[in-house]
Design a protein that fits this description.
alpha+beta; about 40% helix; elongated; 3-stranded antiparallel sheet
């Protein structure tokens, strides 16, 4: 009697404790396809090789004469997602990380009793969205026109921009930006 390919593959997968969900993600199919493979008495050799490479198992022992151990070696040309990143992408993530660290340090300084309203290097910006929900962010630098334009395109409107005492401007004084602020709600 001929060996049932699907059952053999299923036994190996379950014996080695592999997750079917993870296997489905790695092989690029859904879980139902994997269950269907288990029911097949004859599997295509490409499917067995695909599964073997995914779980790092050499099926040449279970299917002698049909496969060679070299069939289950993952090609070296396949790049992992981290090695495929170019320098420009890395710089973007580095900038985001630095920005996150700055925000974290800012929150720590607030916890130590330095309120943002009296810090001269902080710009407080209040936004209102279409549902009239109000949000506030604090920036270390004066907001640029590009930043404010992006906020507008995202559906947020500037309610006010305030900053601490800097160059004789009181922290509650509103900074006027031409055509940027609008009356909302």
């Amino acid at each position: 009697m001929a060996a049932h390919n699907g059952e053999i593959v299923e036994k190996v997968i379950r014996r080695e404790g592999h997750s079917l969900t993870d296997l489905a993600k790695i092989t690029g199919v859904n879980r139902r396809s994997i269950y269907n493979w288990f029911l097949q008495p004859r599997l295509k050799p490409e499917i067995i090789i695909r599964i073997g490479r995914a779980i790092k198992h050499d099926f040449s022992a279970e299917f002698p004469g049909q496969f060679a151990p070299e069939d289950f070696v993952t090609p070296a040309e396949v790049k992992s997602p981290t090695t495929a990143l170019d320098d420009e992408t890395l710089d973007v993530w580095k900038e985001k990380y630095i920005d996150l660290l700055e925000r974290y340090n800012y929150l720590l300084s607030e916890k130590q009793g330095i309120p943002a309203a009296i810090r001269s290097d902080i710009f407080n910006i209040r936004f209102v969205n279409d549902k009239c929900n109000e949000y506030q962010i604090d920036l270390r630098n004066e907001p640029t026109e590009l930043f404010l334009d992006k906020c507008k395109r995202a559906g947020y409107r500037i309610k006010s921009i305030n900053r601490g005492e800097l160059a004789g401007i009181k922290h509650d004084q509103h900074i006027s930006l031409e055509g940027v602020t609008e009356k909302i709600c």
